[in-house]
Each structure stands twice: as C-alpha cells, then as structure tokens.
Amino acid sequence: MKIAIDAMGGDYAPKEIVAGAVAAAKDNQDVEILLVGDESQIKAQLTETQPSNLRIIHASEIVESEDEPVRAVRRKKDSSMVVAGRLVKEKEADAMLSAGNTGALMATGLLVVGRIPGIERPALAPLLPSLDGVGMLALDLGANMDATPEQLYQYAVMGSIYRERVQGMKAPRIGLLNIGTEDMKGNEATKAAYELLKQSKLNFVGNVESKNMLERPCDVLVCDGFSGNIMLKSYEGAASLIFKELKKSFTQSLLTKLAAAIMLPKLKGLKKTLDPNEFGGALLLGINGCVMKIHGSSDSRAVQAAVKQAKTAIKGSLIESITAEINKE
C-alpha cells in the first residue's frame, strides 16, 4: 500500500507535514509513504535517518493558497499537489493527502484523478467530533456551494457506504441538515431531497438542526457545501472561543488556578474529543481514487491521523464499493 502526501501544502508545510509523514511511516510499516515536494526543503526537515518505508518524490512547483484552483492545476503540472494526484491516477499510489488549497485539490481530483462514473459531483466529507467520541460524517462541507436534490441523495449513498465499509457501522442513520426537524421545512432543494431520501432504502431519520451536531443526531449528515461549510466554521469558532475563555477564567486567581488543576484531566479529555486534528482528514467522496483534504493548519498529529484514515479506507475498498453501488442504481 502506498500513500502520497503533498509535503508543500498547508500553513505549516513542509515542517509539520514532514514530521507527520515520518511518524506515520514509523507507525505503519506496511505502508510506503511518498512525500511529494521540493526535495531540498523536505530533506532539510529530516533530522534523522528517514524510515525505510518513506520515499521522496521531487516536485518543483507549489500550489499557493491564493492561486485560482483550475488555473493552478492546469499550469502548475509539476506542483506537489498535481504530482500526488497523478500518482493516484496512474495507480502508483493508493491515496493522496494534502493540506493545501481546497479548491485546487478539488480541481486535482476532478481534472487529474477523475470522477467515479455516475457521480455528478464529488463531496468533501470530514468526520466531525461528537461528545460520545464516535464522530459524525458530514458531506458536503465545501466542495460545491450548490447541490440538486439528486446530488444530495448521492452524498447520502456515498456517506452511508463509507460508514458501513470503512467504519463497520451497521445501517448508519442519515440526516438532512435543515432549519427545523419538520418534514416540510427548508428550501425547494431540501424538500425534494427529503422525499428522495424518504423513499430510498437508506436508514433516513429525517431533518436535523445544526444546534444538535455535538450530540450526533445522525451518523451521516447531508447538506450542500455552502450551508455545511458555514456550520463547520461556526462550530470551529465556537469551540476555540470556549476554550480561550475557560483558560482566561481559570487563570484569574489562586482559587481558580486550584480549580483548574482539579479539572485539568477532564478539560484535556474534552479538548481532545472536540479537536479536529484528532480525526484526520476529509475524503473527497466521488473521486475515482482516495483523495483526502486535511485542514490547512494541520500539525503532525493530523497528518498521522489522516494516514491511518486513508489506510482504513483503502482496506475497506471504499472506492470500489461506491462505484458498484452507484452503477447498480
């Protein structure tokens, strides 16, 4: 099994990406890690002898965060992101990971790797933290701003297969993000999607509201990329603010510091539960290969988690399962 990692994408590349790749190589001896990027910059981050299952593949260009996605993919053919995508396309890698430009990664998936036949639009599908530690798969969270009812239905099918085949969840519950739980809530697209999901063989539990996300009201949350991304950013901002305010409150006096010392183990556990870095990356479901987006601010832990997640998806024959299901319909 081979997993290609875009070493040059992300806020802390190549330092954190390389550190995560080295750690992942050590933890997964049955996986060959292909670090794609500027060879001299990657080697400068290797402070010790690299693991035998880690290989550097030189790429001379970088897709920057401000680059226009499609233009960057078409013009920067020797960029670390495009080269990693080409490795997947040519079956020289089983998966690719990148913390770089989300739009460019989407374009790489579509233009370089290609879509699964029958899929109208791929979806970005991260696993969101939940208080019970299980997490909730949500799609789409940013790949496409708009979606038709039929595309929302396809998201549900792909998400259900992911949770069944990769995570071993029987009959995962499908929920539709909406402004209320009543049947006829929402705009025309969500109303039509509701009927498609209700009539399907999926385990559809109805509309769900964003206020209940941490309680895992469903196992697969279906939404368009615009609504989903707003929900995700709101969650991330709220979680960050809460922990900042807790830290401020617990350092105000000797008494609060003593209280913090008592609460510290619980608070660390809660922070870990809600930390996106602990959950790895977001797969681009619908692409004819395992393509994963990790957060732009990913640290080495996130890279390690993403490698583990990609490895599980490959072993679970995720792409093959989605392909078979979509072509059966």
Task: Explain how this protein is built.
The chain is α/β, with parallel strands linked by helices and about 325 residues long. The protein has two domains: about 1-120 and about 285-320, Isopropylmalate Dehydrogenase (3-Layer(aba) Sandwich), CATH 3.40.718.10; about 120-280, Isopropylmalate Dehydrogenase (3-Layer(aba) Sandwich). It is built from eleven helices and twelve strands. The chain has helices spanning about 15-25, 40-45, 70-75, 80-90, 100-115, 150-165, 190-200, 225-250, 255-275, 300-315, 320-329; strands at about 1-5, 30-35, 55-60, 95-100, 125, 125-130, 135-140, 175, 205-210, 220, 280-285, 290-295. It has a seven-stranded mixed β-sheet, sandwiched between helices. The chain has a five-stranded mixed β-sheet with strand order 6-7-10-8-9, with helices on both faces. The protein is globular. The chain starts with a strand and ends with a helix.
